[in-house]
Each structure stands twice: as C-alpha cells, then as structure tokens.
Amino acid sequence: MQDQYADRLGEGADLIQRMQLASERMSILIKDLLTFSRITTYSHITADIPLDRVINRVLDDLEVAIQEAKASLEVESLPSIMGDESQLRQLFQNLLSNALKFRQPQTRLRIRISAQLVAGTDLPPSLKTARPAASYHLICVEDNGIGFDEMYLDRIFQVFQRLHGKNQYPGTGIGLAIVQKVAANHGGGVIATSRVGLGSTFQVYLPV
Fold first, then answer.
1. Interatomic CA distance for residues 203 and 119, integer angstroms
2. How far apart are CA 119 and CA 134, in angstroms?
3. Nearest to 58 by CA among 129, 136, 117, 111
4. What count of other Cβ atoms lies within 10 Å of the Cβ of residue 189?
5. Alpha-carbon torsion 167, 172, 174, 179, what sign?
6. CA distance 145 to 110
7. Quick one: pLDDT at residue 47?
8. How many whole angstroms separate alpha carbon 184 and alpha carbon 204?
9. What string of H, E and C letters represents the secondary structure of the chain?
C-alpha cells in the first residue's frame, strides 16, 4: 500500500508505519518467548564446553554492534564446564547485548569478562543456585554503562520486567530471564550489582 498508493494515503501512511513497527516488536517478542520456552523445557547438559569458544563466537555475532559502539573489551581466560553450548551462547549474548545497549553516550564503553574459582561455602547470601557444589566458576561481565538502581534487583530477572521505556531502549524484557534460566539449568545462578551512572556487574556462578 505504501509503495503503490503513497500519494493517496494521507494520514494513513503514518498509521501503516505504526502498524509495521508494532508487528516488528511482536515478532521479536514471539521469538524471545519461544527461546525462553525452549530453555525452560529442555536441559541437555552432557558436553564439556570451553567458555572461551562460547565467548569468541558471541563476539563474532556481535561484531557490528561492538564496532558501532566503539566498545573496548577485555576477556580473560575462561574455564570449560559441563553444559549445553547453545544455551550458554544465549546467556552471554544477552549479557553482552545488554552492555552494548545500555551504554553511556558520552563515555567509551568498556566491558570486562573475568573468571575465578569460588568455594561453595563462600557464595553470596543473595545467590540461589540450582544444586549445591563444592566449588563454582564465577564468570563476571562488567561494564561502565548507565547502570541501574539496586532497589530493582528483585525485578530484573523476571519475564517482561523493564527499567526503561521501549522508546528509550528497545527490547522485550525477557533477556535476563533467559540468563537466569540458563544458569539454573547448569546448576548455578546469577546475581547483579550496579550503581546508576557507574555501570553494572553480572556474576554468573556455574558449578565445577
């Protein structure tokens, strides 16, 4: 209709554009819901997965977005874990996509991914893991983005929860729910710390 009848549509051209945008948002929402549903109902944790390989493939997928953001990345050597590679890719892709999305316009974005071993007895009190283990790999994804008020920590991992309007930052509010579910599928958990204007750190705990 836009191509063939643009000169006759008048105000209708704006309505068609709004319909197209709404359809695109619905398509993204359906795709994210299907991803969340598959992760919720399927847990195939049988292979030894090098997280270095997972991160490298995620960075390849996000190469254009990283270049557009002029982001600086520092990635430490990461361990291998028993897991499902496609789920782990979704976990880290969502965390890195969020870091790229919620950056400060006047500050060069810096993202750091690090790893360390943590004893099961030294886990943060707020962390809930899917199964107990003697020790955990702690993978941290840190950025210097816009951050958020920690009063919302109990909301950010829930489905459809957004701290910003869709016109300000696009998204469906499902990404961090997927992150939490993948961590739980692997026997671990995830928590976050943040300060407004000073960035965020997401801590993913996966059993050794």
1. 15
2. 6
3. 111
4. 23
5. negative
6. 8
7. 81
8. 10
9. CHHHHHHHHCCHHHHHHHHHHHHHHHHHHHHHHHHHHHHHHCCCCCEEEEHHHHHHHHHHHCHHHHHHHCCEEEECCCCEEEECHHHHHHHHHHHHHHHHHCCCCCCCCEEEEEEEEEEHHHCCCCCCCCCCCCEEEEEEEEECCCCCCHHHCCCCCCCCCCCCCCCCCCCCCCHHHHHHHHHHHCCCEEEEEEECCCEEEEEEEEEC
With a cut of 70, which residues of the chain have pLDDT below it?
A: 25-30, 32-38, 40-45, 159-173
**Would you say how long the chain is, in residues?**
208
Give the Cα separation of 184 and 110 in Å (integer). Answer: 27
Single-letter amino acid code for the residue at 22: A
CATH topology of domain 43-207: Heat Shock Protein 90 (3.30.565)
pLDDT given at position 84: 85
**pLDDT attached to residue 158:** 77
